[in-house]
Design a protein that fits this description.
single chain, 149 residues, alpha/beta, 4 strands, 33% helix, globular
C-alpha cells in the first residue's frame, strides 16, 4: 500500500499504518519532504506507483497548519498527486482510495475521482457505517443486524 500526501498532519495515515502493518501489509508513504513523519518509510511516488496494489491519497490538512507556500494546486498535483499519467502506470488491479473530502485537481486529477478503479465513494459510504457501529457499541448497543432475541 502506498499512502501519498500530507502524512505529517493526517490521522488517516497514522491509523492506516498501525492497522495495516498489524495485518502484515507493507505500507509506504510519499509526498513533500516537509510532511515526512518519523517512523514512516518515505519513498518517491513515481518510483513506487507501479509497486502499489492500493494508492491512498490524502488531502492537504490546511486547518492543521499544513502549508506549501511555494506550490500552486496545479504544481502540487503534478509533483505529488495522482495524475492521469501516473494512473496509467498503476497495476491493472490496483485501486485508488481517499478518505475525503477530496480536493479535485490537487491531490487527484478530477477525472480520476470517479474512474473505474476509484473506491472513494464506497470508502466514504463504508466509513459512515463503521462510525455508526462504533458509536452504537460505545453506547452499549448491539452492532447493526444483530438482536438480543
Amino acid at each position: 500500500m502506498l499512502i501519498c500526501g500530507d502524512v505529517a498532519h493526517s490521522r488517516v495515515a497514522a491509523s492506516d499504518k498501525e492497522a495495516l502493518e498489524r495485518f502484515g501489509s507493507t505500507v509506504r508513504f510519499a509526498g513533500p519532504k516537509e510532511w515526512e513523519r518519523e517512523g514512516y518509510p518515505f519513498v518517491d511516488l513515481d518510483e513506487n506507483i507501479e509497486w502499489a496494489d492500493v494508492l491512498i491519497l490524502l488531502r492537504i490538512q490546511r486547518e492543521r497548519g499544513a502549508r506549501l507556500e511555494s506550490l500552486s494546486d496545479e504544481e502540487y498535483l503534478s509533483r505529488y498527486g495522482l495524475t492521469k499519467e501516473r494512473e496509467k502506470r498503476m497495476k491493472d488491479h490496483a485501486i485508488i482510495m481517499h478518505p475525503a473530502p477530496v480536493n479535485r485537481g490537487v491531490e487527484i486529477d478530477t477525472d480520476l475521482v470517479e474512474c473505474s478503479r476509484s473506491r472513494i465513494f464506497q470508502q466514504m459510504k463504508n466509513g459512515v457505517l463503521v462510525r455508526k457501529a462504533v458509536v452504537r457499541r460505545a453506547l452499549g448497543f448491539e452492532p447493526f443486524g444483530r438482536s438480543k432475541a
